[in-house]
Amino acid sequence: MKLNVQQLQINAERLKKRFEIMGQIGKIGETGVCRPALSEVEKEAFNVARGWMEEAGMSVRIDHFGNLIGRYEGKNPDAPVLMIGSHLDSQPYGGRYDGTAGVLGGIEVAATLKEQGIIPERPIEVVSFCDEEGWRFNKGLFGSKGITGQLEESDLQRKDQEGITREQALRDFGCDPAKFSESQYEQGSIHCFLELHIEQGPVLDRANQPVGVVSGISGPLWWTVKLKGFAGHAGSVPMNMRQDALLGAAEIILFLNQMVQQDPDTKAVGTVGNMQVFPNSRNIIPEEVAFTVDLRDIDLRRRDQYEQKLRREIEAIADKYGLTFEIREDTNSEPRYCADWIKKIIHQEGTNMGIETPELMSGPFHDALAMSYACDYGMIFVRSKDGISHNPAEFSSPEDLALGTELLYRTALQIARNK
Q: Do both 225 and 184 map to the same domain?
C-alpha cells in the first residue's frame, strides 16, 4: 500500500532521518554496519540514542548488564512497566535495520506520546539490549537474559577473538558485574514486552505485505563442536592412515544439511557459520577443528529428534576417522509463542489503520525470546526486501518502517492506557 503520512500519528520523516544517522555509526561499505557489543562503536550509538530518548521526555540510564534504558513515566510509577525494545549491536557484516528498527521505533512511540500530551497509566521503558546478536562472545541475548535472571556463571568468562572476556568488556563499558542484582527486574514488575523487528525472511515480501504479526519464535539450539585427530605431513601420510579432523567436520556439516531437508514441509534449519582449524596450514593434515552448529525449529519434538540424530552421526564419524570429539551446548531454548491478547490488539489496530496483518513465525531469535520467560510478549514484523538480513544488502523501506512503527505506537497506547 502507498503510505499517506497525514494518516500517521508518528513522525515518519523524523524516523527516516534517525535511521540514516544511526546507519552511519559503525558503517562498513555503502550500506553495511559493524557495531560489536560493548564496543566504543556501540557506545557511540548509545549516546546518540540517549539524546533522542531524552528529547522524548525519558529519563535514561545504562544498567550493569550494558542495556540502554529510557523510561517514560506513567500516572502510576509503581505499576508494572510496558517494555519496548530490541538492540543496536550488529553482526560483523550486518545491515542497518536489524535490531535498530525496534529501538528507534520504541523511541518514536515515546516521542509521539509526548507530542500528543499523553501520560500513560503505566510507565513505558524503551530498551536497547546488550549483545543480542551473540557473535562477539558466541552467545547472545545477554542483556535481556540479564534483567530477567537467566544468565549462567560461565557467561562472563566467554572471550572474544582477541581474548577479551565479557566481564572485562562490561567493565570497560562502565558497568560493574558485581552489581548485577541492582539491574535485575523483580518478578511481576514487567507487564509485557513489545518488539518491532524486520522480518529477516521472505514471507512478507512474497505476499506483498508491509507488516505482519509474529505467532512465535523457533527454539534455537547452539553447539560448539570440537574434533581432534592427529597432525601429519600432507604429502607423506597415506589417505587410509589419516586422522583428519577437517574431513570429519565436513561430513558432519553435510549430514546436518541433508537431515533438515529430508521433510520438504519442515520449518527446521541448520547452519554451521563459524569454523576454526588447527594448525591451519596447507600442507599439514588438520589436527583439530572447532565449529558452531545452529539448529532451529518451531516444533520442539522434531528439533529434539534431529539433535539426537546429529549426536549419533558425530559419534559415528569420529569413530570412522579415529577422532575424539566434544560437544558444548551454548544455547538451548524451546519455541516460545506470542500472547494471544497482544496479538489481538495488534490485529485490531492494523484493521483500524486499514492494513492487513498476516501472522507468521520467526525463525531468528530475538530479545523477545528471553523476555517471554518473564512476561507476555508480542512482536511486529516489517517486510525485508528479498528476505535479506545479516548482510549489508538488508533493506526495509522508510514507508514500511513507518507503518510498523505506527502499528507499534497504537498497540503500545492501547496497552499502556489500561490500569
A: no
DSSP string, 95-140: -SSTTHHHHHHHHHHHHHHHHHT---SS-EEEEEES-SS-TTTS--
Decide if 165 contacts 157 (C-beta within 8 A): yes
CA proximity to 334, closest of 222, 218, 223, 216 = 218
The single residue listed with the C-alpha cell 522524548 is 56
Domain limits at 177? Answer: 5-218+335-417
In the prediction, which pLDDT does 5 show? 54
Q: Is 226 in the same domain as 203?
A: no
Judgement on whether residues 165 and 306 belong to the same structural domain of the protein: no
At residue 63 the predicted structure's pLDDT band, cuts being 50, 70 and 90, is very high
CA distance 354 to 271: 39
For 390, the grid coordinates are 545479516
Beta bridge partner(s), residue 45 = none
Amino acid (one-letter) located at 121: E
CATH number for the domain including 40? 3.40.630.10
> Could you tell me the pLDDT band of residue 79, with boundaries at 50, 70 and 90?
very high
Dump strand ranges (E) for 335-408: 336-337, 359-362, 376-382
**Predicted confidence (pLDDT) per residue in 204-261, tens digit:** 999 999 999 999 998 889 999 999 999 999 999 999 999 999 999 999 999 999 999 9
> Is the pLDDT at 2 greater than 60, yes or no?
no
Comparing CA positions, the residue from 416, 358, 404 lying closest to residue 197 is: 404
Pick from 302, 332, 362: which residue ends a domain?
A: 332
238 in the same domain as 147: no
Residues β-bridged to residue 85: 127
Distance CA 83, CA 80 (A): 9
Q: Are residues 24 and 114 in the same domain?
A: yes
Where residue 328 sits, what CATH number does that domain have?
A: 3.30.70.360
If one counts the domains in the chain, the total is 2
pLDDT at 3: 47
Q: How far apart are CA 383 and CA 66, in angstroms?
A: 29
* Single residue among 290, 306, 332 that ends a domain in this structure: 332
Please provide the average confidence, as pLDDT, over all residues in the chain: 95
pLDDT of residue 331: 86
